[in-house]
From TrEMBL:
This is TetR family transcriptional regulator. Residues 26-45 bind DNA. The lineage of its organism: Bacteria, Bacillati, Actinomycetota, Actinomycetes, Mycobacteriales. The keyword Manganese does not apply. PROSITE patterns: HTH_TETR_2. GO terms for molecular function: DNA-binding transcription factor activity; transcription cis-regulatory region binding. It comes from the Bacteria. Residues 3-63 form the HTH tetR-type domain. InterPro entries: Homeodomain-like_sf, HTH-type_TetR-like_transc_reg, HTH_TetR, TetR_CgmR_C. Pfam families: TetR_C_28, TetR_N. Keywords: DNA-binding, Transcription, Transcription regulation. It comes from Rhodococcus oxybenzonivorans.
């Protein structure tokens, strides 16, 4: 199965999670949405848990690619983690959709999915701890970044840009 087909299957999964939620997502529905046979889907994703875990890992890969671009442009991991997401870009919108779908898939009942989420989040957490000497400060940066991203995902009011800029400056002690 070509990478394009794999992505089409994962895109179909995300769409179904966003449209109907985890309880109504079946392998048959994902295969139909992706326009592949159930056998083709099962060849690469032997069960629903493996499919959901692959979606979470793809989210991590996409975010890591975005991070690598930012770092190559001179942004630190901490600055990237604390940025207010820009949902007007295609890349960020894809990450939003993937994140919401991933959040809908984590129900505490699927070990592989939980491990995938932990792997993705732990990678960023380790990066922050390696960049910021003080572990308490690194944890504060992680928590603030998580909160800003979640607020943006939920459409909650974000801090005024000038105030948030001061928050970031203080957190990163610039």
């Amino acid at each position: 199965m070509a990478a394009g087909t794999r992505d089409r299957i994962l895109d179909a999964l995300e769409k179904l999670l966003l449209d109907v939620g985890i309880a109504q997502v079946t392998l048959e529905a994902v295969a139909a949405e992706a326009e592949v046979s159930k056998g083709g889907l099962l060849y690469h994703f032997p069960n629903k848990e493996a499919l959901l875990a692959a979606m979470v890992r793809r989210l991590g890969e996409r975010a890591d690619a975005q991070l690598a671009d930012a770092v190559s442009g001179g942004t630190s991991l901490s600055e990237w983690y604390l940025q207010v997401p820009d949902a007007s870009t295609t890349e960020e919108l894809a990450l939003y959709r993937s994140t919401i779908a991933a959040l809908r898939s984590v129900d505490g009942q699927h070990d592989e999915i939980q491990r995938a989420v932990i792997e993705v989040m732990r990678g960023w957490d380790e990066g922050l701890h390696s960049e910021i000497e003080d572990p308490v400060q690194a944890e504060i940066v992680r928590l603030v970044g998580d909160g800003i991203y979640l607020a943006a995902l939920l459409g909650l009011p974000l801090p005024e840009p000038e105030l948030y800029s001061k928050v970031v400056e203080r957190l990163l002690q610039k």
